[in-house]
Amino acid sequence: MIYLDNGATSFPKPENVYKAHDYAFRNYGANPGRGGHSLARECARVIYNTREKIREFIKANSTREIIFTSNTTEALNQGILGVVSEGDHIIISKLEHNSVWRPVEWLRKNFKIELDFCEHDKEGYIILEDLERKIKKNTKLVVINHCSNVFGTMQNLSAIGQITRNKGVLLLVDGAQSLGFEEIDVQRMGIDMLAFAGHKGLLGPMGTGGLYVREDIILKPLKTGGTGSKSESPEVPAKGPERYESGTMNTAGIYALGAGVDFINEQGLDKIKSHKLNLLKRLIDGLEGIVTFYGPQSLENRGPVISFNLGDMASTDVAFILDTVYNIAVRAGLHCSPLAHKFFGTLEQGTIRVTPGIFNTIEEIDILIKAIKEIRES
Asked: Is the pTM of this model over 0.70?
């Protein structure tokens, strides 16, 4: 199979990730933080080491600012639900994933929070003046999708962070599609919280993800229970990461996630980014005039995501043919982001989404181009 659905989860993984997961599953079998014996301590060290790798990767100040979750959705829910109270005002973009829109809508309906959407230009880039204008005295949080998971629009985090920092408003960034592709410096960019997937651009296993939370921000925990520390208290620990990590950790997955970060560091972000953009350029050049592309017109400030439609054909029909006839895996439909589709006018048809990975080749893109042309002609 030609796999071009890396925006959902990266596949295949680097060989060192497979080996790391197998090794950890066989050798790190104790429960980290739930025992004083040597193996439990070794498992805790394994988790700490990956925490340190993530800290360094995003330029965080402390490992205590890195929380492990099962995915980006859990991280976003923790960040949003953990900081917002009744009467607060939230601003989100019109390109958000349901992992943002649904918890915010739940808060709006159940806790009477105020919600605004910042405006975008025709390519999906946030109009900074509008964002600044919409911030009010009771604005608590701005939530921004760094890279649209549907259209690839990559927002200017530094400019957005400057606005929120000047206004004293918290900035939560959804980095599911960008981390592992674009360099993120949470301190320089003014990011207060960053949600990320372990299994997408970071090339780790499914069931891994995380949330960076600036150390002076104390969130209401999304879940409570055993943390392996402060067991005498009915309250969870006062600070992260233990405050937000109740329950047994995914030691093998977190260890393998660290191996994914190692692979990215060895390859270099510039090399990975260049490779993925070259694949997208090949696709755009090969299908120009044949399909309708959406989103940014230039590869500059675009993430490793592209969406298009073939005439009036349902996007799901095209994807089905690519899968069953050509053995090519793409994604079609609404991609869990109806707000983005509504903005670009594709809510009814959906889009065919191609998200190449580090292991895809120009030859595979050419096969996709040929398949699309044949589908059009049939």
From this structure: yes
